[in-house]
Design goal:
The protein is of the alpha+beta class. The protein has four helices and six strands; from the N terminus they run ββαβαββαβα. The chain has helices at 23-35, 47-54, 87-106, 125-134; strands at 7-8, 20-21, 40-43, 64-68, 73-82, 112-121. Strands 3, 4, 5 and 6 form a four-stranded mixed sheet that branches. It has a two-stranded antiparallel ribbon with strand order 1-2. The longest helix is centred in the last third of the chain and has 20 residues, at 87-106.
């Protein structure tokens, strides 16, 4: 691994040069892969990322933390699940989707993909009113 916190790709031939992948790239890939899974309501972000998104810029790496070391890649994903889904099943799907996306796009295998469920998003109040009216 390079000193500037980049992940260096090991290739069979080094005649053309080297390829380095920034941790932010892995965060974006993992964030998109996690948010694609049905049952994930949103990814957890901080105040700054919320302000930036309101201004129109999408932060795909929101809610993802990547730790690189010489021997391992560790990905932590912080997400909010939709109410009524099976949390263990959705978390397993998120792990599988992230592992597959990283393998397809970077040829890297994550040693750990940890899912942290930080909340449950209930349906909107408008839908709850409609349910009460039906009863």
């Amino acid at each position: 691994m390079a000193e500037n916190n980049m992940l260096e790709m090991k290739q069979a031939t080094d005649s053309l040069g080297k390829v380095e992948i920034a941790p932010e790239v892995i965060e974006v890939i993992a964030g998109i892969a996690a948010s694609e899974v049905e049952g994930v309501a949103q990814m957890r972000g901080n105040f700054a990322s919320g302000v930036v998104e309101r201004l129109g810029k999408k932060n795909h790496g929101k809610g993802v933390k990547v730790e690189l070391s010489d021997e391992a890649i560790k990905v932590d994903v912080y997400c909010v699940m939709k109410f009524g889904v099976s949390i263990p099943k959705v978390a397993q799907e998120v792990q599988d989707n992230i592992r597959q996306a990283l393998l397809n796009m970077t040829a890297l295998e994550a040693d750990e993909v940890n899912i942290h469920v930080v909340g449950v998003q209930f349906e909107s109040a408008k839908q709850e009113v409609e349910l009460n009216e039906e009863i």
